[in-house]
Amino acid sequence: MNQGKFVFSQVIEFIPRYRFDKLVKQYKGDWHVKNLTSYNHLLHLLFGQLTGCDSLRDICLCLDAHSKILYHLGFRNTVNHTSLSRANESRDYRIFEGLGFYLIGLVRPMYSKVQLSEITIDNVIYALDSTTISTSIKLAAWALGKYSKGAVNILSDGSKNKSRL
User: Which position among 1, 22, 93, 99 has the lowest Cβ density within 10 Å, counted as fewest Cβ atoms?
Assistant: First the structure.
């Protein structure tokens, strides 16, 4: 039996809802929206990043599997992958970009007077995003990615600036 809050609901508490709603209003993110509001869209994408989902369909399947606890995770409702795909295509990216810049602006002053070499983290940190760099298969035959193309995936593991290739 769950005795506390879920990790996902604890993470979304750090999102300043007033600031996000202000960005949504500024860029008209919820104009002519029926089911998937901008905030719900953000929750779907964050859930996909934190759980390691590979596709929009995977996000929707995971959320359907947890349908009994969605309210406790912070979701009002879920949508299918088609609606999520359409929202990704049509919703203004500046809403999420503005939120990212705002959150970075909150954290930056905390470490402004500290040298980068002095910052140490005892626990493991997991990146919310990773970078995939496309390569030529002729130059890097060992880097076979999806669809017979070459790619190198860089994931930060938080230990002394090492990256896993």
Answer: 1
pLDDT tens for each residue of the chain, 165 residues long: 567 888 899 999 999 999 999 999 999 999 988 889 999 999 999 999 988 888 999 999 999 998 999 998 999 888 999 999 999 999 999 999 999 999 989 988 887 888 877 777 776 665 555 566 666 666 666 666 555 556 666 554 444 444 444
Q: Report the helix count and the strand count for the chain, using DSSP H and E.
A: 7, 3
CA distance 71 to 43: 12
Structural tokens at position 9: 């609901």
C-alpha span between 18 and 93 (Å, rounded) = 18
Q: How far is CA 113 from CA 57, 60, 109, 134, in A?
A: 44, 43, 8, 36
Please return the burial class of 151, using the count of CB atoms within 10 Å of its CB with bins 0-12, 13-18 and 19+. middle
- Domain limits, the chain: 7-111, 120-164
For 66, the 3-state DSSP assignment is: coil
Instruction: Identify which of 35, 41, 32 has the alpha carbon closest to the alpha carbon of residue 95.
Output: 41
Q: How far is CA 84 from CA 22, 36, 77, in A?
A: 22, 8, 12
